[in-house]
Design goal:
This protein is α+β, with helices and mostly antiparallel strands. The chain folds into three domains: about 1-35 and about 475-574, Anticodon-binding domain (Rossmann fold), CATH 3.40.50.800; about 75-240 and about 405-455, BirA Bifunctional Protein, domain 2; about 255-385, YbaK protein. Helix content is about 25%, strand content about 30%. α12 packs parallel to α15. The chain is globular and about 95 Å long.
């Protein structure tokens, strides 16, 4: 994109709306529609209009600059991917219905890439063969496709979106760690340069796989992700956070006692019956694991089991027991517990309970519970698993203080893939001794189009978008209060030309509209600075400058304003 440019508002393709569209829930979705930045084509599919595309282009420029800075090389892979590669990796069936599949005229299966691990690994396995050729980091910025079940929130969760995805190939773990650290630091700078307040959080690797992952979350109430964080710097997605939980011992003197609890089938009712907080209760959850075996998992009564963690513990495809399955295995809904489980039902417990010695649990008999149940004496879990969702008030694993909770928008993520894809697709290199090994891989993604929504969620007010200068589609709007006269219009034209000459991106609002309409539209579109040219100020040799972020207005001499604004704008570019 050119450093300086100018467009007249009369020719700008940005059809604005006066009212919030009924379909939009989030601020970013509403404002992008109202400001004429996007238009819906179908569910989860949007056209990017000129203002939105300029923002996306600026984000892409920041990404490219940071990638160039750490030695990554840009390329472009096909969007359409043959199914054979996905069968090689094992993801054709595992990825699920979100993988958008299609067939060509010869009835061969293809998919539209939601991510490109298979494609890039197949590429390098034919080209890189020696440790001397490694490491290599490749990236692209491209449209991706995921057939989301419920596309929503505008650019936040769509079926088609713009993503930067990068992949690195290494001969050893130390090399991967260096690139991973470089990429993580570059991603932090991308967020900062784009005006996003982001928190790096430990994350689950999800469909991508691998062993280590960090997400950069833009803190926002509209975020779909839940996370916990601490003042010491610890932060994690609740799906990945392993935190100490404040559990209380159950009632009683520590001896196992069976107590009649008529009508008590929920944690709330049990806690009320015994007069204890829910932290002193234990919840039993019955499920069928991926192997088809029955399992009862005990968790703290005040916490919920996390589906993502449960998949790691019990395998993809596990499910909670139905009422019919509970009856089949002799389990009693509302009174399950670890003592005296029916034969053939495996017992596991959340690791947060490992040091607790007195449990309030179901007695595996309708209307009865045990107090004082003790692991090792009265029952023995076959495994201690991490399956609960971390929440506010849990204990930080780093410093021991209570955790805070927040919501976040995932903007980017870095992964250490290891050899998952290189082994499956045969991407091998030869070491100095002539021995072959699978390449060690990293994967790095940035949701470019989603970042636009994240920026708006963090930068808006009741009047519209408040763009940071670094990503604003235009940096200054020149607003003449009258058009076509021989006093205001020439000054507005002159100041526009001076700003462009100084390297500033300018909108000249030359429309024959009332001042109120112009002010409302310019606030809605969020240009960082508004230069207002009116007769009253001009009579004294001044024009008015409004800072969109602060709302502050000041009078600046006509002969100085272009220089002053240029200095401010350029100093805020990152």
């Amino acid at each position: 994109m050119k450093t300086s440019s100018c467009i007249r508002m009369s020719s700008l393709y940005a059809p604005t709306l006066k009212e919030d569209p009924a379909e939009a829930e989030l601020a970013s979705h509403k404002l992008m529609l109202r400001a004429g930045m996007i238009r819906k084509m179908a569910s989860g599919l949007y056209s990017y209009l000129p203002l939105a595309w300029r923002v996306i282009s600026k984000i892409e420029a920041v990404v490219r600059d940071e990638m160039d800075g750490i030695g990554a090389q840009e390329m472009l892979l096909p969007i359409l991917t043959p199914a054979e590669l996905w069968h090689e990796s094992g993801r054709w069936d595992k990825y699920g219905p979100e993988l958008m599949r299609t067939k060509d005229r010869h009835d061969r299966d293809f998919c539209l890439g939601p991510t490109h691990e298979e494609t890039v690994t197949a590429l390098v396995r034919n080209e890189l063969h020696s440790y001397k050729q490694l490491p290599v980091t490749l990236y692209q910025i491209q449209t991706k496709f995921r057939d989301e079940l419920r596309p929503r929130f505008g650019l936040m969760r769509g079926r088609e979106f713009i993503m930067k995805d990068g992949y690195s190939f290494h001969a050893d773990q130390e090399s991967l760690q260096r690139t991973y650290d470089d990429m993580r630091a570059a991603y932090a700078r991308v967020c900062e340069r784009c005006g996003i307040r982001a928190l790096p959080v430990a994350a689950d690797t999800g469909q991508i796989g691998g062993s280590t992952s960090v997400e950069f979350m833009a803190i926002a109430d509209a975020g779909e992700a839940e996370l916990v964080w601490c003042d010491c710097g610890f932060a994690a997605d609740t799906e990945a956070a392993t935190c100490a939980v404040r559990v209380e011992e159950g009632p009683g003197d520590g001896t196992l006692q069976k107590v009649a609890t008529p009508g008590c089938g929920t944690i709330e009712s049990i806690a009320a019956f015994f007069g204890v907080p829910q932290e002193a209760t234990r919840k039993a959850l019955a499920l069928i694991d991926a192997a088809g075996e029955p399992v009862v998992c005990i968790v703290p009564g005040d916490h919920e089991m996390n589906d993502c963690k449960a998949e790691h513990a019990f395998g993809e495809g596990y499910h909670m027991m139905t009422d019919e399955e509970l009856a089949q295995y002799g389990l009693h809904k509302g009174s399950m517990g670890p003592v005296g489980l029916p034969a053939g039902v495996r017992l596991v417990a959340d690791v947060s309970l490992k040091d607790s010695q007195s449990w309030l649990v179901g007695a595996n008999e309708d209307g009865f519970h045990y107090t004082g149940a003790r692991p090792g004496r009265d029952f023995q879990p076959t495994a201690w698993v991490d399956v609960i969702t971390a929440r506010e008030g849990d204990v930080c694993p780093t410093c021991g203080k209570p955790l805070h909770a927040a919501r976040g928008i995932e903007c980017s993520q870095v992964f250490q893939l290891g050899t998952k894809y290189s082994e499956a697709l045969g991407a091998l290199y030869t070491d100095a001794n002539g021995d072959e090994h699978p390449m060690i891989m990293g994967c790095y993604g940035i949701g470019v189009s989603r970042m636009v929504a994240a920026i708006i969620e963090q930068h808006n007010d009741e009047h519209g978008i408040v763009w940071p200068v670094c990503v604003a589609p235009y940096e200054v709007s020149v607003i003449p209060l009258t058009v076509g006269d021989d006093v205001i219009a020439p000054v507005a034209e002159r100041l526009t030309a001076e700003l462009v000459d100084a390297g500033i991106q300018v909108v000249l609002d030359d429309r024959k509209e009332r001042p109120g309409v112009k002010f409302a539209d310019n606030d809605l579109m969020g240009f960082p600075y508004q230069l207002v040219v009116g007769k009253k100020a001009l009579a004294e040799g001044n024009v008015e400058v409004k800072d969109r972020a602060t709302g502050e207005r000041e009078l600046i001499a006509v002969d100085e304003v272009a220089k002053v604004l240029a200095e401010r704008v350029i100093s805020q570019r990152k």
